[in-house]
Amino acid sequence: AKACGRDRSERFDEAMRAEATRLLDLEADLRRAILQDAFEPFFQPIVRLTDGAVIGHEALLRWRHELHGILPPADFIGVGEDSGLIEQVDWLMYRKVIGIMAGSNAPGYVSINVSPRHFRSDDFVERLLFLLESAGADPGRLRIEITEVALLDDAPRALRMLSQLRERGVLALLDDFGTGFSALSYLHRFPIQALKIDQSFVQGLGSDLHAESLALVRAILALAGTLGIDTIAEGVETQAQRDMLDELGCQYGQGYLYGRPAPA
Ligand code: C2E
Ligand code: CA
Ligand code: CA
Ligand code: CA
How far is the CA of 166 from the centre of ligand 4 (A)? Predict the structure, then answer.
């Protein structure tokens, strides 16, 4: 039994080492990719549910990896955040998105994703405005997507930053709504243009979780209505989901039903 226990702990050590090596490789890979500028925004349309008109696009980060092909954020964002590299990746990404936006006459706005940690950095607003200005892009066509964590972490500061951005025309969307603190009482204090209803609730519609999802989506829509905030449903995959959301009074939607993320 003793020998067996030792084997097991050796196997465990080996697995830990393999995992540590994999993560180190990934970090080295990520550093190289930053130097090679191997990141690219994909864009997914956001539409008005009543008539399907495109009102904007969300920019979603992709890594064109030389061996593994096109990687979504889930494959590298953990290591990127732990190593602090994600901020560099984000700035490369934002510059590209803004460059593409400035040179395109696609309808509506473009939204970028900002992680809570990134939103906390001192020069975030200044750098973003600088990028817009150097690209000759209209700030009124850019939106930032942030989560509740980014707001509540240091609320006075978040309020200041969002106000500065809004003064220049950059509005904010509240991402993944319903999955965070949803302390609700804070909502009316921030300049938020729209709530993005998290896709878990949207995909719950018509599933085993229908009743709960319906109740939550209703509550979110009522709240947003009271506060005069627009609503965007994320992860709309079926016509049935679209119809329910439209009937419930949700204004906008995004998801595979309308289009997958794709290069510019
Ligand atoms: P998110 O902001 O909630 O983005 C929505 C995710 O849902 C995207 O995954 C999108 O491809 C996916 N999606 C869209 N429609 C559907 C649908 O109908 N069904 C399903 N099942 N999924 C759908 P993606 O592109 O893999 O991005 C994952 C997350 O990575 C994003 O979640 C966002 O939090 C983060 N992210 C994306 N781009 C950036 C970026 O430039 N910087 C940072 N820091 N994070 C990013
Ligand atoms: Ca988002
Ligand atoms: Ca989201
Ligand atoms: Ca998310």
Answer: 23
